Amino acid sequence: MKGENVIVEKSKAFALRMIKLYNFLSDEKHEYIMSKQLLRSGTSIGANVKEAIRGQSKADFYAKLNISLKEASETEYWLELLHESGYINKTAFESVYADCQEIIKLLVAITKTPK
After folding, report:
1. Closest C-alpha to 39, from 69, 18, 8, 12
2. Whole-angstrom Cα distance, residue 71 to residue 43?
């Protein structure tokens, strides 16, 4: 798995962080609605990246990566809400938010390349 593909590796590592954050939010903070949304969108990024790798065509590849980008943008939104509502402290937010933005930048770069 290591060295496979930067976006595959980063999106999977991010998904694992989202699972841990979801567990923290539901177990410690008793927040169930936004954390579930965060879990869904945050883990969907990598799932769609993996689907893109096995795409049936270039169009399919780019379509799946664009879905990943949308999911990453949604995740960014849930992270902002969770931070601004006090469920995630500043330090934790800044770390995970930076990871999310890095994934967004990678996906934007990949999807803007000539099709």
Report:
1. 18
2. 9
Q: What is the mean pLDDT of residues 93-99?
A: 98
Please state, in angstroms and rounded to a whole number, the distance separating the CA atoms of residues 21 and 6: 22
Both tokens of 115, joined, read: 């099709």
In a domain, 102, yes or no: yes
- Distance (Å, whole) CA 69 – CA 50: 13
Q: In the prediction, which pLDDT does 24 show?
A: 98
Structural domain harbouring 62:
6-111
What tokens does 43 get? Answer: 């883990």
What pTM value is reported for the model?
0.93
For residue 16, tell me if it sits in a domain: yes
Q: Which residues fall within 8 angstroms of residue 1, CB to CB, at 6 or more apart?
A: 9
What is the token pair recorded at 46? Answer: 């990598």
Count of domains for the chain: 1
> Nearest-CA neighbor of 96 among 50, 49, 39, 51?
39
